[in-house]
Amino acid sequence: RVHFNVGGSQAVEDSLKVVRNATGGKSLMFAFEGGYHGRTLGASAITSSYRYRRRYGHFGDRAHFIPFPYCFRCPYGKKRGDCGMHCIKQFERLFETEYHGVWDGKAEESEYAAFYMEMVQGTGGYVIPPEGYFERLQDILEARKILIVDDEIQMGFYRTGKLWAIENFGIKPDIIVFGKALTNGMNPLSGIWAKEELINPEVFPPGSTHSTFASNPLGTAVGLETIKMLQEEDYETMTREKGAYFLEGIKELKRRHKIVGDVDGLGMALRIEICSAEDSFTPDKAMTDRIVDEAMLGNLEVNGKKYGLILDIGGYYKNVITLAPALTISYEEIDMAISMLDQLFTRCTSPGYV
Known about the structure:
7-stranded mixed beta sheet, single chain, Aspartate Aminotransferase, domain 1, alpha/beta, 354 residues, 4-stranded antiparallel beta sheet, Aspartate Aminotransferase, domain 2, globular
């Protein structure tokens, strides 16, 4: 069952109501470091950036933030492939004894109601988790009756090659929050989907979520047309194939340029992490800023024509170029993008750059 609202943060607020109602009023949530869920009071309480809360006093319902499986910058100092999924073991450890602060072993009940998660971190820099991580996380949460809330506001509607990003990871959520690409900026519309036992009118009465413009006629018409258009072409195959092609291109950039520390991608959500040329690891925000400024000058040349690039920057250290092109981008346009990025990286690292 679906309830609509007008923006991502508002939909997150609605999901929090569903969670609290279903868990007897529990107000504490797990969320990921690097996660972003919005800037309303409730949403900012589960968003890891303190700067969104700093001005507004104490947040008694601030989430317990868990390290995301960011393998390139593993907070535990491990390496992908031989770590034995150390990060998930550290999360599971919280439930071993009541003295870790989240679990009452006698009552077999957690103080935390739900885990809010982005399958691929958006503002955090398009960080993509290792295979098998979310399946193991789901087992831990389900065993302790902790709900899974999947935030698809940035990655939903085929950005990652599936209608919902969570479909890439083999787990099933209790609640999905969606927005953005549903109407693509044409009119405000967002929403939540929840399992029937959580949201049916008998347990979650009509009016439990509300906004003056929720379910507005123009927004729902645009949203319906988006869904129809997504059914007219094979966006799953299109996004996966073009995304794989784009990823190969940025992998080549990594081989060519020492400032590219990490690249990754899932569908048409791709990342290029800019680092110090000395070790290809230390975050280099200054170089990232230089690249962004240079890209805006509009003097990158491809096939005799000059272009500029508008680059979106994210990541924990604001050193990640996050690539989210139109799903309908052509292969020729991908080649142009790779060529321009190659020029940018060469230009910005040249000894004579001013």
